[in-house]
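__Record contents__

***
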Amino acid sequence: MRITKVYTKTGDKGKTRLAGGQPVWKDAVRVEAYGTVDELSAVIGLARALVLHEVKGKELAHVEPELRWVQNKLFDLGGLLATTPGQSFPNMPSIEKADVVRLERSIDGWQQDLQPLKEFILPGGGTIASTLHLARTVCRRAERRCVSLMRKEELDQANIIFLNRLSDALFVLARWVAHSLGEAEVLWERTRPA
């Protein structure tokens, strides 16, 4: 794909076009879904940049390629969400069971280095871990937007499963990064009745 002009002025009246050219309102459920997936990719991009910038030479070398893979899968998912059900195009991307399995294997690997949680943790643990927690919350919102879409239109269940597992992966990765960098997790302190 070659983009020669960034602005087209076609969206100035509140509409955009899906991948097949169908006009839709910019606040349509489908647009909300792929827009939130795009937002998630941007937050993960920030996490990648922080990993590359702040921890050069440390044991997080494998994190950046994993996050880059996630961004590519999110771009695939955004393309799928931007396509009207029943349409297909040459070289159309997909979200497969193997993608979910890859996330599960990553979760299991990171989990081996972590102590089991005995209480909820407050999002934090340093800049990278905090950014990954932010990505996790945006991922949950993307999942909710996709569920809303699924309730109105046809949507492959694999897309929702992928987002669900990705939010789990981002949570565990945030914990693993904090642990690897020696950054403390802050436990939720329940407010006790007076």
Notes: The two ends are 63 Å apart (CA to CA).
